[in-house]
Specification:
Helix content of chain A: 40-55%
Number of helices of chain B: 10
Oligomer: heterodimer
Mean pLDDT of chain B: 91
Number of strands of chain B: 0
Shape of chain A: globular
Shape of chain B: globular
Number of helices of chain A: 12
Order of helices and strands of chain A: HHHEEEHEHEHHHEHEHEEHH
Low-confidence stretches of chain A: 1-26
Low-confidence stretches of chain B: none
Strand order of the largest sheet of chain A: 5-6-7-3-8-9
Distance between the termini of chain B: 48 Å
Largest sheet of chain B: none
Strand content of chain B: under 5%
Chain lengths: 263, 235
């Protein structure tokens, strides 16, 4: 894992411009949301969220359907623009360079109509990895995702779990500082879920900041350092994982963890 | 009815004997058509993709305009190209009128809107599926267009096929700008029109049979290709 995320760093550093190096060293932290609101058709879906994300912890976002969890990830990723408020990286509006330091994995895997290895090559090319390095990096990513035997198969014929493993290692091809995961195991069986969780843990161990949405309490307990609980578009609670699961402070989180219907 | 049967028999005899005039006409038809479709694809594929992916003022109007051009009357295109290439026209100095090049230009103008409009539809659908992924990867606009065109390649064959069908069957424009000159600009469709008017049904029928055969062949090839692509989940 260490090799996969860090291989080719020297070569890339040599190819980087001083500006890019500066961007790397200054980093993207904190990733901050200030008074972020998002509304569609007069309906407020995210309502005044203030949040600072720092590296070093695995942040799990929980909450009932419609709470705004996936929207929050999309706002951080820049896929949606807030109606009010702002999302900043290191105190500034994120530019293209800052945005390329994050990667996202979606609930429903999106794979290109190409072979598994062509999907990875496409990602490496898009992330600006020099052509000479791509084959080696691709092979490392295939090994990381245990996809070597499927390398030449069309990605769209893979099982859901295999497609999601491909999505994970494709995201890691970006060498992201921040990895956003939107319920990546929502429709997977336990074995496939375990494979994804292993990849998440490995990435976190390599210093990648994880922000992951899940409905699965067991998964949250396995992976979370802290929990962000959303309810009706608001951040109802943010707490260390142990404290959250032992004694949630908000009424909404208590009801959610007790399995009561949150209406 | 007897004459009709005899004409058919003569037509098949012409085809089977590899009649030199017939082969020359077929070769020119294919050259003009294939080059026109290739040029139309070179213009129409990126144009359709930009209309599908681009967000710019006037995009809706441009889309309506391209769609409307699909129904462009060939004789009007022929007339327009004639006026441009005639000795009094702005491009008269090129002396392209009554040459295969003029026919290629006219057919390219006719086929490009078909390719562009069908491409826009195919790419727009695929873009809906890939949009968030490619944006989250920080893909640049050109990279997005290239990715979409490549991944939609099998579907886009249908667009090219539709263009090929239009070009193969086209007669109005090419007869105006080509002049149907024997051994120079005479293609299958213009020959069929001419020979029918002269009562030489065997040559007209022979060419008609080949034209229909080509159409079936191309359709079959593309359907087979798309079928295998779908089975392999590339489509």
């Amino acid at each position: 894992m260490h090799d996969v995320l860090n291989s080719g760093t020297a070569a890339r550093a040599a190819a980087e411009t001083p500006l890019e190096k500066s961007g790397e060293s200054s980093g993207i932290w904190p990733v901050a949301l200030q008074g972020v609101r998002f509304a569609v058709g007069g309906k407020t879906l995210i309502d005044g969220i203030d949040l600072r994300l720092l590296p070093g912890t695995r942040s799990i976002i929980m909450g009932p359907n419609g709470a705004g969890k996936s929207l929050l990830l999309r706002l951080v990723a820049g896929l949606l623009q807030p109606t009010a408020g702002e999302v900043t990286f290191a105190g500034k509006a994120p530019d293209g360079t800052a945005r390329r330091r994050l990667a996202m994995v979606f609930q429903r895997p999106v794979v290109l109509r190409r072979s598994v290895k062509a999907n990875l090559t496409h990602a490496l090319k898009t992330y600006g990895v020099p052509r000479a390095e791509r084959a080696a990096r691709r092979d490392q990513l295939l090994a990381l995702g245990q996809l070597e035997n499927l390398a030449d198969r069309p990605a769209r014929v893979l099982s859901g779990g295999e497609q999601q493993r491909l999505s994970m290692v494709r995201a890691l091809a970006a060498k992201p500082a921040l990895l956003l995961l939107d319920e990546p195991t929502a429709s997977l069986d336990p074995q496939a879920t375990a494979a994804i969780e292993t990849l998440v843990s490995q990435a976190a161990a390599e210093g990648v900041k994880i922000v992951m949405v899940t409905h699965d309490r067991g998964q949250a307990e396995r992976l979370a350092d802290e929990v962000l609980f959303l309810h009706r578009g608001q951040l109802a609670e943010r707490a260390p994982a142990d404290a959250f699961f032992a004694q949630p402070q908000s009424a909404a989180a208590q009801a959610y963890l007790e399995g009561r219907l949150l209406l | 009815m007897q004459d009709f049967g005899a004409a058919f028999a003569q037509a098949f005899a012409l085809i089977l004997s590899g009649d030199a005039d017939l082969m020359e006409i077929i070769a020119l038809s294919l050259r003009v058509t294939v080059l026109a479709v290739a040029m139309a694809c070179a213009i129409g594929l990126p144009l359709g993709a930009v209309l599908a992916v681009g967000r710019f003022p006037g995009r809706g109007a441009a889309t309506v305009f391209v769609n409307a051009l699909m129904g462009l009357p060939p004789v009007v295109v022929g007339l327009g190209v004639y006026l441009m290439l005639s000795s009094a026209g702005p491009l008269g100095v090129l002396q392209l009128l009554y040459t295969p090049t003029a026919m290629i230009i006219a057919q390219t103008i006719l086929v490009t809107p078909i390719v562009a409009a069908l491409t826009r539809q195919v790419i727009e659908d695929l873009h809906g599926e890939y949009d968030e992924l490619l944006r989250s990867m920080g893909a640049r606009r050109l990279g997005v267009v290239a990715t979409l065109l490549w991944d939609a390649r099998y579907s886009l064959l249908t667009a090219a096929l539709a263009g090929l069908g239009r070009a193969l069957a086209e007669v109005g424009a090419v007869i105006i700008v080509g002049g149907n000159i024997n051994h120079v600009t005479r293609v299958m469709t213009t020959t069929i029109a001419l020979e029918t008017s002269k009562g030489n049904l065997s040559l007209a029928l022979g060419l008609g049979i080949i034209l229909v055969g080509l159409s079936i062949l191309v359709n079959g090839l593309v359907m087979g290709l798309r079928g295998s692509a779908a089975r392999m989940a590339y489509a």
